[in-house]
Amino acid sequence: MKIKEIQNEIVDEFSMFDDWMERYEYIIELGKKLPLIEEEYKNDSNLIKGCQSKVWLQGEQNDDKIVFTADSDAILTKGIIAILIRTFSNQSAIDIINADTDFIDEIGLKEHLSPTRANGLVSMIKNIKMYALAFDAKK
Amino acid sequence: MLDIQKIRSDFPILSQKVNGKPLVYFDNGATSQKPQVVIDAIAKYYQEINANIHRGVHTLSQLATDAYELSRNKIQNHINAKHSHEVLFTSGTTFGINLVTNGFATLLQPGDEVLVSALEHHSNIVPWQMLCERTGATLRVIPMNEEGELIMSEYDELLSNKTKIVTVNHISNALGIINPIKYMIDKAHEVGAAVLIDGAQAVPHLKPDVQALNCDFYVFSGHKMCGPTGTGILYGKEEWLNKLPPYQGGGEMIKEVSFEKTTYAELPHKFEAGTPNIAGGIVLGTAIDFMNEVGFTNIQEQELELLAYGTEKLLEIEGLRIFGTSKDKTSVISFNIEGIHPYDIGTIIDKLGIAVRTGHHCAQPIMNFYGIPGTIRASFSFYNTKEEIDSLVAAVRKAQMMLS
After folding, report:
1. Cys bridge to B375: B102, B234, B332, B334, which one at CB 3.0-4.6 A?
2. Structural domain for B64, as ranges
3. CB nearest to B341's CB, from A20, A24, A73
4. What's the number of CA atoms in the CB half-sphere (13 Å) around residue B275?
5. The last residue of a domain, from among B269, B292, B315
6. Do B343 and A24 touch (CB under 8 A)?
7. What is the 3-state secondary structure (H, E, C) of A29-84?
8. Which residue of B has its CA nearest to A54?
9. How far A76 CA sits from the closest chain B CA (Å)?
């Protein structure tokens, strides 16, 4: 599935929730289910240090796609990571470069991607794009 | 006894709703809310007497200058400084500390030692590290124990004739611990070292007496004590302020200027270059008047009651641990819940209208000491209530339920 299609799917899923609490409970569930990053990749070079929570991100090339795994020490951050991984992982470099994250506003999680939030997520998206740029340049 | 409802009605922001819930403001350690008199005084200054100070013969300039200097005198009385020129207006605690560290760059040599406590905010660590880098002096750390208290026997050991200055906060921002500063000041003086006290977290709760303490410098911010942001005070003993070079050059701080040589103004102007935050300086005086009217005895009584009640109620939550368990504490409760990240709790209780600080509180060494990423810090002010603590406890329980 293309990134945009996945994002629309996520927006649909979130439209079922009536209030913030249901949304958050869902994010917490996603966070708990997120496959953990391999312990060997949970190292300092993959660490994005937010002021509030830490994020680890590892990207690998799989044919013409990039596969991302990630983790965080905070569960809400981890839940949002799960959403971001679902959209960006297993996509081509060029699609990742051209994608946006506007759907996060639509599902009512805008504040979590605010640059002043300092939870590591904004840097994570930047790093996802950097991976894509780097892989694309190697082609 | 304070009439809390009456006091609360003085603070317009407290009747606000946040995320559809009544605001419970427990981030007073970061900044306090402002009473109507302070908000009005800012507008009044701009509406009635706005002019630059110290330079004009015209009436408005004179009125503004008088108001500014009157505020300086109020602050002098409030902290019991010997002279009004020992009271310097700054933009806040951080500026005050940097002014002193910059001055000490001319006084320190390799081999000299600076003692800093393990309980400090980054703003009372980093400027001293920069000073040591510049001068070759050595930074040494006064360690803390599990209760969050500085270990005085270790402090005594660290002091020597190499010690040139000791810097410590009056009250810790991350844990709320009240440090034994009188003892520390006396001990430092025995070896001839100067002492800077970071009073940022103390002035909202108590009235420091700088002469009784006999500290050499005492710095604080206005915005934590009902005053405007961007205001602060550096108190320095006259002899020390004369010894230190000016921090910033500019207008207002000079006696005479020529391209060959400039001579500096007398205290306090030597350290007050440029047009200051005139409105802020004046209104800081208004804020101090307000706090004195409420009365520091009343403030302490209310806050200690909240501290005792909050501690008891929070500890009823399973898996909750409080950091900073010394009996010498102000109304700050820094805590975590086993297995849950403080960021998650903070985010969820914000949705329930509760404002707390989460994270390392700009005091990473303390978090490293406990081996935690951060804490949730609820800091109470005299305008807070037990009902608000009940809301906090209920919100934390709800967050815990959602997150485990």
Report:
1. B334
2. 39-292
3. A73
4. 10
5. B292
6. no
7. HHHHHCCCCCHHHCCHHHEEECCCCEEEEEEEEECCEEEEEEEECCHHHHHHHHHH
8. B373
9. 6
Element (H, E) at B97: helix B93-104
Same domain for B23 and B45: no
Q: What is the residue whose two structure tokens read 């501690």?
A: B311
C-alpha span between B398 and B317 (Å, rounded): 11
Q: Mutate which of A18, A29, A75 to test chain B, going by most B C-beta atoms within 10 A?
A: A75
Domain boundary among the residues B292, B312, B347 is at: B292
Number of compact structural domains in chain B: 2
Give the amino acid at B128.
W
- What distance in Å separates the CA atoms of residue B119 and residue B142, rounded to the nearest whole number? 9
B344 to A20: CB separation less than 8 angstroms, yes or no: no
Please report how the helices A75-88 and A121-138 are oriented relative to each other, as an axis angle in degrees rounded to 10: 30
Is the whole model's pTM more than 0.90, yes or no?
yes
Q: What is the pLDDT of residues B31-65, one digit of tens each?
A: 999 999 999 999 999 999 999 998 778 999 999 99
pLDDT digits (tens, 9 = 90+) for B360-370: 989 999 999 99
Amino acid at A28: I
pLDDT tens digits, B86-124? 999 999 999 999 999 999 999 999 999 999 999 999 999
Task: State the Rg of chain B over Cα.
Answer: 22
Write out the E strands in B67-112: 87-90
